[in-house]
Structure formats: structure tokens, C-alpha cells
Description:
By secondary structure, this protein is mainly alpha-helical. It is about 50% helix and about 5% strand.
Amino acid sequence: MDKQELIKRAEDPKYIPGIYNYCDRWCERCQFTSRCLNHSLEEEQNCKLESIDEANKRFWYSIKDSFELAFSLIEDLAQQEGVDLESIEIDEDDEIDNKVEILTHRAMNYANMVDKWFENNQNILENELATLTPQFLGKNISNKKRSHLKLIHPHTTEISIHLKEAIEVINYYQYAITVKLSRAIKSRDNEAKIRLEDISQDSDGSAKIALIEIDRSINAWSELLKYFQAEPRDILKIINYLKQIREIAEKEFPNARLFIRPGFDEINEISDRWSDKKITSKGVRPEQI
């Protein structure tokens, strides 16, 4: 494709300008692939993009009821186990003074926690999910032989669809959170040097993506919690840890939730079924879906 053809395609009104600058790069689950020039240029189209978009909409909406139930279980399980969600502490920041360094350090530590959890529970996920109901799945964890993390194959039909999707979300965002937070921090440093004011800033856009990824990860872990009610402590610890990261990020980037991403946040109201936030054209309303 020559330069003139690229310019012509970029001017096509069906494409949303700059939509690819503030996305999570999960094209396979994006609702706007048919309106993204970057995706169109990269893809060898074997089917209509519009049909892919509709399938992805169904993916994000299909887990709404499941996650609402999962969230209602968290406090009940924590109370049963005597776990105070507000008092869980991770002793890892003793030698880190800078809040920004703490933020990225914790994000990476979360990624390591994900690896450790899947390593400890891999056999349960692969061998027992097909036969055990959620309330009984966690009871045999202590008797199971531990194995190293090996992601479940996406075509394993025996796996519960909601649990499979939750695992997919957790793994996709596992390291992406650190990447987006790092970009937000670097962008903010650059913006400070050139004193950008009163305009939408890249740092807020990047931080918003990280926050959305954290929201979705928390919801995915909440779904996983339904299947491990017998031994919920590790998952509760991870959920609380993600909430701590989110709290720090929201304090460091107080305007991030208000950032309007091209395409994603320009519809009158977008309800993100994997997030515990509702996004509007004016910003975010912190209410439950």
C-alpha cells in the first residue's frame, strides 16, 4: 500500500481516529475492530469484521450475571474465613520510598502472584472442574500434587465457560497492567517537562486503561472465587492486593477515569460488563452495574 492509499483509508469516516492509541490491545475481544484502521491494516481478513464485533459484544455481556453473583460471595467468604479485607498487608515496600515506584513494583508483584496461584492450583483447574460443582471444588486442594503453570488450552471443552473466560482475562492482563502503568508514569514525566495543561493527557489515557484492566482482573478473580470457596484465602488476598494497586493508581492519576478515549468512551453511555464502573461521555460514575 502506498502513502496516498494509506491517507485515503485514514480519511474514511468508518474508522475512528486514534482509537488504537488507548486500547488494551486485545483485538480478539474488541467491539470496534471494524472501525480501527490499525487492526484493518494488520489483519488478513478471512471474514467480515462486523461479525467479529458482534461476537465480542456477546463475550463481554455474557458474564454479567455471573460476576454479580461472584461479588456478592466475596464478603461472605471473607467473613466466614475470618479474613479482614481491609487489614491484609503485603510486606514488600519497605525499601521503596517513591509512590510511583511502589505502584509499578506492586503491579509486577501481582503478576508473580498470578503465576504462583496457577502453579499451586493447575491440577485442580485441569482435572476436576468438569466434575466438581463450584462449592466443592476447593476441598481437595491440599491433597493435590502441585505442578508448574501450564495454561489451559482454549479449546478444552470440558471447562466451565465462565471459569475459562475468567482465566483468559486474568492471564491477558497479568502483565499488561504493569506496562500501562509504566507508560502512564513516563508520559506524566514528559508532560511535566513541557508543561502541558488543560488538555487531555496521554498519562491519564494510559492510566485509565490500566485501571480498566485492574477492574476486569478483580472481577475475573471474583468469578474464580466461586469455584474455590473451600480455600478462598489466596484469591481474597489477590483481590485485595489489586484493590490496593487501584487505589494508589487513582490517587496518582486522579483525572484518569475522566479521560475520554476515542471511540470507547464517546458513546452516550458504555456499560462495561467486566468492570465495576459505568462510563459515560462525561466521565465515570462509581456505581455498581
